[in-house]
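The records we work with from here on pair a chain with its fold. The integers have meaning only within a learned vocabulary of local backbone shapes. A complete example follows; check for yourself that the lines match position by position.

:::
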Amino acid sequence: MGKINWTEEAERWLRDIHDYIARDSSESAVRVVETIYEKAQLLGRFPEIGHRYDKIADRHVRTLLYGHYRIAYLIKSDGNIDILGVFHGALDIDRYLY
């Protein structure tokens, strides 16, 4: 089972998601962020469950879907996982990953 590391950028994205949702409902914001975090924890046991991001051929980058969000992550050679970011589906993910 690989270790999951949240990059500073991914943590920043998660805080931004929380802050945006919290404008309407702090309870919903907490629930969404917690559920995104829980979904990402699955990667420790099932790192290949996300879709391969083929635009970066030399790295093992994948995206895992959760509702309107995409969790971008890198499977490292040692089996550990770096969460690169959490993106709303409406965003052009290529702009941030490629």
Q: What stands out?
A: Helices lie at 8-22, 26-41, 94-97.
